[in-house]
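Onboarding guide, step 5: your first structure request.
Type a short instruction followed by the sequence, for example:

Predict the 3D structure of this protein.
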Amino acid sequence: MKEVFTKKAPEAIGPYSQAIVAGDFLFASGQIGIDPETGEVVEGIEAQTKQVMENLKAVLAEAGADFSNVVKFTIYLNSMDDFQTVNEIYGSFLEKPYPARATIEVSRLPKDVLVEIDAIAYLK
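The system replies with structure tokens like these:
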């Protein structure tokens, strides 16, 4: 296993890595809408979703990958009322064939953010 770390995404806020490469797979920890330059959570569902995707993009890039390598995303939403907004922004970062995905409404997320997304990527 190999740890992936980049300063272009927020540092972990707990005992975990931004991502781990195990064999041909990268397992990216859930990213939230923290701006890595300021360390602050951005405001609103649109800005948070964009920041989450930029953070994931940076973690993938550090491992020599991009969104085309992702085989599965999991999206955690504070409210399913935000599903359409998140879906549109998330989708704007992707091209066909789209990866598999699960979307789950949760009661609360770290730092009271509105969205968190993790990813599994195939590196071959």
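Each response can be followed by summary notes, for example: Strands lie at 2-4, 19-22, 25-31, 70-77, 100-105, 115-122.
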